[in-house]
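Chapter summary example.
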Amino acid sequence: MENNYDFTLEKRLRDLSPDLHKRFTDTVFSMQYILSNYKLIFPEYTDHTEFHSLNVIDFCNRIIGSEIDSMNPDEIYCLLVACYFHDTGMGVSHKDYETFLNEIDFGDYFETHDRSNPMKIIRDFHNEFSGRFIAKYAEFFEIPSEEHLRAIIQISRGHRKTDLTNEADYPIALKVPNGNTVCLPFLAAIIRLSDEIDITASRNSSLLYDIPKIISNDHNIEFEKHEAVRYMTVEKEQFVVFYKTDKPEVETALFSLFEKMQSTLDQCRRATNGRTKYHITQKEIVGRRLP
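The structure predicted for these 291 residues follows.
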């Protein structure tokens, strides 16, 4: 993917529902300031600002393709808003962190992890912190109904870890007040996949903000992986990642990343294809080394 953004979803929403489109654009205006808060907690981490949200939406457009013809305006609105909300948990305030810590189900996480390490906790559960953030501030963003709110929370949470095949959490046809239904597993799968494949060099915070590379070799490898990925194309049956590096250790790390991306793609296809009326046509992640 090069810098030619696809705005099909936004244009479609504008045509189908000017009201929902206005609500979405108002959300975008507000979120550009809120999303930058993540840098207060993770100054050296990959980009999670509105630029990442824009990339995620672009990938959503390209992955959805002709399936957009079957999507109603409520589905498009919920997906677009979730693209801007899904990483709000990365920049929660200290006060919200303390509140949400008592509301999130961490399972047995703290049996093996230190409760006094908020950075690690936020990173590992930022999708859950995002869900709590959306619920708390929903009125500010003028989300049109409780059903829309539930959909947006679940889609945002679904960008990682959650079980998209769980019908109780991700119903195939969640009814909204106007009579439309929202297909949560499909929308959550699309955002999960789009988030997973946003790995190009533009997400490297050292390139965006001129932050020096520091800390451990593992951390440097993370930066170098993103620097090596020059661009990606979304084709009908595959994602092609074009990369350039002369370091074997970086290439090895990239291969591991491609395997992780393939696993996510497989999960997303299982959650949608054959279970919903929607299909993800891409089947594999392909890496191609540039000369």
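To summarize the output: Residues 8-289 form one domain.
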